Amino acid sequence: MDNSCTIKTIGIPKLHSPLDAVQFIEDNEYVLLNPVVKILPKEAERPFQGVSQQRPATPIPFDTTNKNCFQKAGPRSRIFFDSETVQVGIVTCGGLCPGLNNVIRAIVNCLNYRYGVKKPIYGFRYGYYGIANKDYISLTPEVVKDIHNLGGSYLGSSRGHQDSKIMVDNIIELGIDILVTIGGDGTQKGAHQIYEEVTKRNKQISVIGVPKTVDNDLAYVDRTFGFETAIEQAQAPILAAHQEARSVYHGIGLVKLMGRDSGFIALHASISSGDVNIVLLPEAKFTMEELIEYLIIRFKSSEHCVIVCAEGAGQDILPPTGQTDKSGNTVLQDIGLYLKSEIPKRLAEKNIESKVIYIDPSYQIRCCKANPFDAAYSTILAQMCCHAAMAGKTDMIVGSINNQYVHVPLLKATEFRKKVDKNGTYFQAMLDQTGMPEWLDLIQNRKNPNPEIASPEPKLATL
Questions:
Q1: What are the tens digits of pLDDT across the range 37-58?
Q2: How many other CB atoms are there within 10 angstroms of residue 445's CB atom?
Q3: CA–CA separation, 433 vs 226, rounded Å?
Q4: With contact defined as beta carbons under 8 Å apart, do 317 and 264 qualify?
Q5: In sequence order, what are the beta bridge partners of 374?
Q6: Does some domain include residue 53?
Q7: Catalytic pick from 177, 185, 215, 360?
Q8: How many CB atoms lie within 10 A of CB 120?
Q9: What is the pTM (predicted TM-score) of this model?
Q10: 217 given a catalytic annotation
């Protein structure tokens, strides 16, 4: 597997860009993955030496064959495709996500108004199915002018594998020069397969991805569009669960949020709420015994509790389904329904009365309109996608790293799924805010100079 961050191009860009009033980005500008450096004591104490301490006149070179830096995104002074003849196609795949229509609209508008693309853009319907079956509609600024006010995907979406050879046959037959794939991990893996098939046929077709996963689990990039909207939309269900729980004796408000393999939405929504007492994530294992023990302690100081769980939490305490969906993902057990029935049953065994109020707002969240942050963010991602595509770049996605927009090779973007760092700032902030116990696996995973003296029991915080 190619492990480098080098961005591929389909040819030398020779045409002058039609863009004006912009600062062009050069291909030798890169963004560091980790900008944090340690200053040695001697360096920190050394006094400034005038000009020698200033920024060097020439940039420090970086090796782009490793994963330490990513090419900066933005408009180039030279482009590869001719605006008069270029044909563009757009496809949205996978689950719905706030901001999908903002991306579609921004691509169409940027290509038309800024680059002067003349041909109508093909919008393939229902994901890769639309490419495989030549099911598409024509997208113009007039067609997409109001779609940013809608949730869902204007083009529709689908999951599941399609034959890359058939898709490339149709892409070539339709004369497509640029294919924009809007989707998450599975979508971008499919995009790389399309790129490989195109390369085998020696065709100059650019394949550019815009990362879409509401779970925010795509590798390397800071965030994906829709994530901030999901956090915002989760606040109302959490507030409702809190109000319901506090209105009954030993009330337990239980909210299940999206997050198959990564618990970013549950974590960030809980911190934002301030009313959550227990957060259950896929990254942090727990047992029902630990959970019930803590609930009992909680009820000694408060008569209610709010629990937020990610959909992928607690799968190790449930029997596997043995099933996969159309995308090849393991079908998960419903941890929310399990906790809804199991918590009161186990508390009753200890003669403790309780009532669980269960809320699952997942579909309500993922199909809503993007909030202002995600609307702006998805628009800029779409524009960066246009700049990269017109410059002839391929086999990559656009994203942001350290608040800079960058190009990430598709193989890097799908190299792994990003997880919540249990030693990181946000997880620690959640523990500090909730007073939640550090479950056993957290104790064992923390950097402990004397791990053998760690307590075999959960460390319970005092509220």
A1: 777 766 555 554 444 444 445 5
A2: 16
A3: 25
A4: no
A5: none
A6: no
A7: 215
A8: 15
A9: 0.87
A10: no
